[in-house]
């Protein structure tokens, strides 16, 4: 039997991604965001929802670009810090010893130390209440050679992305359960 627990922001899992932007002075900034995901296949697009109060909100509105930086488990402390501190008050990159790199595709920085980066141009934004959802077209993806397979595709077990639980906890990945578009066909009579 299921019990009603009310309307909450509970979806499992959510990503722990860092959204990279430049401010009006050209200073690199990034913030941790969990309300995000792929939202279109063609053109490839991603959505991320931010509160207007965040420093990154104004940066995206002004520059119409952002990056999505996918950290590995090795950077869980840095990921958490980028969600606590504000770029208005300090240089988070300097404080955490991370390297901002200027994208050559969009006007936004990405984080050199993170294994996968999506470079996005803003195509739409929607006010949804407390948050504004930004839709970014993925213009390019950069990935460290160390996380790619022989065909040049990122391998999730090598990336080791951080997963965020809405109860305010971070997790790593679990084990492989089966191949998509395949395991469901097992046992079906032909």
Word description of this protein:
- This is NADH-FMN oxidoreductase RutF, flavin reductase (DIM6/NTAB) family.
- Keywords: Flavoprotein.
- It is a single chain.
- It contains four helices and twelve strands, in the order βββββαβααββββαββ.
- The protein has 190 residues and is mainly beta.
- It has one domain: Pnp Oxidase, Chain A (Roll), CATH 2.30.110.
- β2 and β3 form a beta hairpin.
- The model has no long low-confidence stretch (mean pLDDT 92).
Q: What does the secondary structure layout of this molecule look like, with pairings?
A:
Layout: E1 14-15, E2 17-22, E3 28-33, E4 36-40, E5 45-51, H1 55-63, E6 65-70, H2 76-84, H3 92-96, E7 100-102, E8 109-111, E9 116-127, E10 131-143, H4 156-159, E11 163-165, E12 169-171
Antiparallel strand pairs: 1-11, 2-3, 2-6, 4-5, 5-10, 6-9, 7-8, 9-10, 11-12
Which short descriptors sum up this protein?
190 residues; mainly beta; Pnp Oxidase, Chain A; seven-stranded antiparallel beta sheet; three-stranded antiparallel beta sheet; 14% helix
């Amino acid at each position: 039997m299921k019990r009603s627990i009310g309307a909450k922001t509970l979806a499992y899992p959510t990503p722990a991604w860092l959204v990279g932007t430049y401010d009006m002075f050209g200073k690199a900034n990034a913030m941790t965001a969990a309300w995000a995901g792929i939202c279109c296949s063609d053109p490839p697009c991603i959505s991320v929802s931010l509160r207007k109060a965040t420093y990154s909100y104004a940066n995206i509105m002004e520059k119409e670009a952002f990056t999505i930086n996918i950290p590995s488990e090795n950077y869980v402390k840095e990921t958490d810090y980028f969600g606590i501190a504000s770029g208005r008050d300090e240089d988070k990159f300097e404080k955490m010893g991370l390297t901002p790199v200027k994208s050559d595709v969009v006007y936004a920085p990405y984080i050199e130390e993170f294994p996968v980066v999506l470079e996005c141009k803003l195509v739409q934004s929607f006010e949804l209440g407390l948050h504004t959802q930004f839709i970014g077209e993925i213009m390019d993806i950069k990935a460290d050679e160390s996380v790619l397979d022989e065909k040049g595709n990122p391998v999730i077990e090598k990336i080791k992305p951080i997963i965020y639980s809405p109860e305010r906890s971070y997790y790593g990945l679990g084990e492989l359960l089966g191949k998509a578009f395949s395991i469901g066909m097992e046992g079906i009579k032909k």
